[in-house]
Amino acid sequence: MEKPKRKEDQGINETEAAERISRLSSQLRIYNHQYYDLDQPTVSDAEYDLLLQELIRLEELFPRLILPDSPTQAVGGQAAPSFSQVRHRVPMLSLQDVFSWSGVEDFAARVRQVDPKARFVVERKIDGLSLSIRYENGVMVQAATRGDGDTYGEDVTLNAREIKGLPHRIDPGIVDLEVRGEVYMLRSDFERINHDLEERGLKTYANPRNLASGTMRQLNAQIVSERGLGIFVFNIQLMDPNMFTTHSQSLNWLTEQGFNASPGFVICQTDDEIMAEINRIDVLRHDLDYGTDGAVVKVDDLALRDSLGRTSKVPRWAVAFKYPPEEKSTRLLDIMVQVGRTGRITPMAILDPVQLGGSTVSRATLHNQGYIDSLDIRIGDTVRVHKSGEIIPAVIAVEYDKRPEGTMPFKLPDNCPVCGAETAYTDEGADLFCTGVDCPAQLARHLIYFASRSAMDIAGLGEASVDALMKHGYLGSIADIYKLHEVRSELIETGIIGRQKAVDNLLGEIEKSKNNPLYQLLAGLGITGVGRQTARSIAASMNSMDQIRSATAEEFLQIDDIGQITANNLFQFFQQQQTQNLLAQFKAAGVRMADEITLGDDLPLSDLTFVITGSFPQISRDQFTGLLESQGGRVTGSVSKKTDYVIVGENPGSKADKAETLGVKILSVDEFRELFPAAWPKSD
After folding, report:
1. CB burial string 352-374: b at 16+ within 10 A, e below
2. What is the pLDDT of residue 2?
3. Average pLDDT for 2-25
4. pLDDT at position 6, please?
5. What is the pLDDT of residue 34?
6. What are the phi and psi torsion angles at 296 (to 5°)?
7. Cα–Cα distance between 284 and 297 in angstroms, integer?
8. Among the ranges 383-392, 502-511, 523-532, which has the highest mean pLDDT value?
9. Domains (ranges, CATH) in the chain?
10. In this predicted structure, what is the pLDDT of residue 149?
């Protein structure tokens, strides 16, 4: 029998419910993947929980419509391919979330139906990454993430050895022990590390939980040590010999063994005691330096736990009480547009200051244009702001009945507020970016890439040198690289990039880069969608920068490897005055702006198009490409009917398969040398 419908569900029929369940399931699977696997959540915990509760409610009303892969039927997440998989001996289940005191009362009542004298342990719910750690004969032998929660997780043993508060050895009399804990990062460390990542133009994280999770997925254990992760162990999953009858006994023993075991846990029996402890944690959590988003209520007696059992997803002997997100109303005074080091343009709400989560909040993120449009957020609105797991508060709703007259929809600018270049949604994504090659807000990133091996290959001009030269005012534009020789004596005197030899070596590398082939300069401009290989294809079709910058999008589209989006990016990039000015400065500095054209058909590879795939022990891919081009050949990155030959090395990829499908001739290196002996350099 289907349950009676709640007021908000009245009027919904099975067809409508099926459509809504399908949409909710699909969206929640995406959010699960972003949260568990990518460590890049796009919604707050509160928003996710609301959607999940709606799905649960609909599935209860229409149980026939429950999908086999419904997010309500699985823990979430999967084992990442970068780590070996570990089969769980004990499933790493999630907990049943409740959002009201009545949910806790119902849970306690169900337990008391089995044991009227049941006792409960109330603990802080740490917002981190779940980990199981296994010990054999007192020695840590394995650590695994939750993964899919039921069958497989990721083996992160080396990283786990770097976590503070996790002993490598315990009582050797314990033959087999598996504990479960929550890896966390201090808020203070999160802010410091995120600031450092932002300064270096790298991906930042939404909250400490996701940075902790991302850190545990690093392939270099030293990073885990440097970031100072900690862990709170909250349960014994398996123990031989088993010495305990209650959960509280096990927590005390874990503490004696050197674990940080559920700090401040309290044993309760009555509902009033449970409620008092939940309220105490609610007050305390604002002063803690780590995330606590709820309180966990567990049955203390281990035999009773066994009697209560589990569902496919959660144990029946525990619930997690989730505190409502801290939320207040205030007025949106203005929307400020920020440009990050990656060029991403982010709208930030300027608020009438309000007290939230123990601090004064005057700013909140608005994410992107799509988020602003979805809520129709306008300057002057009264908005609701909340602070959940995120350090930066977010605007989550608008009180439309309080909207003043004359407000206008807000749109992010068509031009960068820092440099004036056009803004664009790259790769059809949700985020808006500045396209200016010389934009001051992202200059450090552009300089580092321009000098990298993927572009102009200027040895000695790395991140540290760029930061030092920018800090002292020597680099305010990419073109300033070619003016550094004018301040040679100052650089030597100040020593900001080293002694005289280091300065002269760098200046020598800069001078040498002026003679690089055209494709390297083109790659160094950092045009979206134009990497080294695509730059080669463009330079092979258009042999001068003058020809490239005057080309239309349709002309770019005729080049192999270039689709409509990249063609449009190229055309718009070269139309900008900022780009024109930079190219003029390169030309004045003597940077090579065109490739020489060899007339005649006497080169052995003239008019032939090649694709290279695989690795070559005797020659690097770049060297091989340069060799083919020097002999008149054209090298592209994808196989098409226009391709004459595909040269395969060790471990060729799908390009070889496509060549077979299209009937394109495939050559090994030895076969190429036999077919074109004049194109291969003579041995000494």
Report:
1. eeeebbeeebeebbbbbbebbee
2. 40
3. 67
4. 46
5. 67
6. -105, 130
7. 17
8. 502-511
9. 7-73 (1.10.287.610), 85-322 (3.30.470.30), 326-402 (2.40.50.140), 441-596 (1.10.150.20), 609-679 (3.40.50.10190)
10. 82
Higher-scoring residue by pLDDT: 117, 149: 117
Choice among 258-272, 404-418, 562-576 with the minimum mean pLDDT: 562-576
DSSP, residue by residue, 230-285: EEEEEEEEEEES---SBHHHHHHHHHHTT--BSTT-EEE-SHHHHHHHHHHHHHHG
Residues found in the chain: 684
Instruction: Report the C-alpha gap between 199 and 201 in whole angstroms.
Output: 6
Whole-angstrom Cα distance, residue 624 to residue 360?
60
**Alpha-carbon gap, residue 51 to 467, rounded angstroms:** 45
User: Rounded distance, CA 438 to CA 579, Å?
Assistant: 8
Share the mean pLDDT of the chain: 86
Picking from 239, 214, 223, the residue whose alpha carbon sits closest to that of residue 134 is 239
pLDDT confidence of residue 561: 72
Q: Which of 3, 7, 125, 164 is catalytic?
A: 125
Residue 243 to residues 147, 246, 247, 250, Cα–Cα distance (Å): 29, 9, 11, 8
186 SS3 class: coil
Q: Are 161 and 141 in contact (CB under 8 A)?
A: no
Average pLDDT, integer, range 3-29: 70
Terminal CA-to-CA distance of the chain, rounded, Å?
88
CB 214 within 8 Å of CB 205? yes
125 is catalytic: yes
